[in-house]
Design a protein that fits this description.
Blueprint: H1 10-28, H2 35-57, H3 69-87, H4 91-98, H5 103-127, H6 133-136, H7 140-148, H8 158-166, E1 175-177, E2 180-182, E3 195-197, E4 200-202, E5 215-222, E6 235-242, E7 257-261, E8 274-278, E9 294-298, H9 299-304, E10 316-320, H10 332-345, E11 353-356
Parallel strand pairs: 1-3, 2-4, 3-5, 4-5, 5-6, 6-7, 7-8, 8-9, 9-10, 10-11
């Protein structure tokens, strides 16, 4: 065994722990096990415990790693190493009883080797170098893989990729073009001020993501989670939000016409924007802020969509009347019933302009 604890990098320290664990394991294979062998095993366990404690508490240890799942996993492995050492503190009594180590003790020693190997592999993910985004953004497929955490980026969990992306100083000088993302978790990613052109966000988790002042064009968000996302001041050109959950999202002060179909906009901030509501099923605007907004909606959807307790002060709500008779035929009575419904359901409707077109 080494005479003292190892200094230097986290990798070097864990490498030492692994070496001591392997040496302990090899000691257990001796037959017979002598008192000197047991002394060596106990000394090795002591060093593993002290080295692991140093990693947990010293200034150059795990506390300096960036927050994220990778770091959390590494910390967990170090904690498990120390816990395994504690379980093995009675190996001398174990040996004195039978002259050998019990099966549970041997299993715990094998576990020390396994845990140290796994910890080293986690550190190798850091040591191998973080992805170079300046190169990744040049290749559409590589960028999709990075954002998705697929192929060459499987080792980098969401929070590590998000930090790399958000800290990338050249991010706002690039454009996202013709990306096709399906089932991806992009919670909290910052896409503010970017040009996003011809992209498809299909069932993507964009909760708390940031699209402020982005220029989004020729793109679709389908079945995606946009809750608490911010699109404030964004530019919209031929963008469609279909079956999205945009509760508490902020679309205020956006430019261009924003198309919503079969979407949940409850509690959303929709102030001072132009909205077109389409589709064969209703959208939901419960407690949404529609002040100063302009809304275009078919008569059928106007009757079935939910505007309960929405704030429509100074909003212009334009209802496209259907030709002919029928349930929502374009009669004065039908439009009058919708106006009455809005007066009852919404806040500040007396300050809104509700009219057919």
């Amino acid at each position: 065994m080494a005479d003292q604890l190892v200094e230097g990098s986290i990798y070097r320290q864990i490498e030492a722990i692994e070496a001591w664990a392997v040496e302990i394991y090899n000691q257990t294979k001796k037959d017979p096990l002598t008192k000197e062998d047991i002394d060596e095993i106990i000394e090795g366990l002591r060093r593993i415990n002290l080295q692991a404690r140093k990693l947990e508490w010293r200034g150059q240890g795990l506390k300096n790693l960036p927050k994220g799942q990778l770091t959390d996993d590494l910390k967990q492995k170090i904690t498990q190493l120390r816990a395994a050492v504690v379980i093995l503190r009675d190996v001398r009594k174990d040996w004195k009883r039978a002259g050998i180590l019990s099966n549970p003790s041997l299993r715990n020693i094998r576990n020390l080797v396994s845990l140290s190997e796994k910890a080293k592999k986690l550190v190798e993910q850091f040591a191998g170098g973080l992805p170079d985004l300046s190169e990744i953004v040049k290749d559409k497929n590589e960028l999709e893989n990075f954002l998705s955490g697929q192929k060459g980026f499987l080792a980098y969990p969401l929070d590590v990729r998000r930090k790399l992306w958000d800290d990338f100083d050249k991010r706002k000088k690039i454009a996202l073009r013709k990306l096709s993302l399906t089932g991806v978790d992009l919670r909290g990613f910052d896409f503010s001020k970017l040009v996003i052109d011809g992209c498809s966000f299909n069932k993507v988790n964009l909760e708390k993501s940031n699209f402020e002042k982005a220029w989004i064009k020729n793109s679709i968000f389908f079945g995606s989670n946009l809750s608490n996302a911010s699109f404030k001041d964004f530019e919209s050109t031929n963008v469609k939000f279909d079956q999205v959950n945009a509760e508490y999202a902020d679309f205020s002060d956006g430019n261009g016409k924003i198309v919503f179909e079969r979407s949940n906009l409850n509690h959303a901030n929709l102030r001072n924007i132009t909205i077109i509501v389409i589709g064969n099923a209703p959208s939901f605007f419960r407690r949404a802020d529609l002040r100063n907004s302009t809304v275009y909606i078919d008569e059928a959807l106007a009757h079935t969509s939910d505007f309960s307790d929405a704030n429509v002060a100074r909003a212009s709500i334009n209802v496209k009347m259907l030709s002919g008779g029928g349930r929502y035929g374009s009669t004065a009575g039908e439009f009058s019933s919708f106006r009455e419904k809005m007066n009852r359901a919404t806040r500040n409707s007396e300050l809104a302009e509700i009219k057919p077109y």
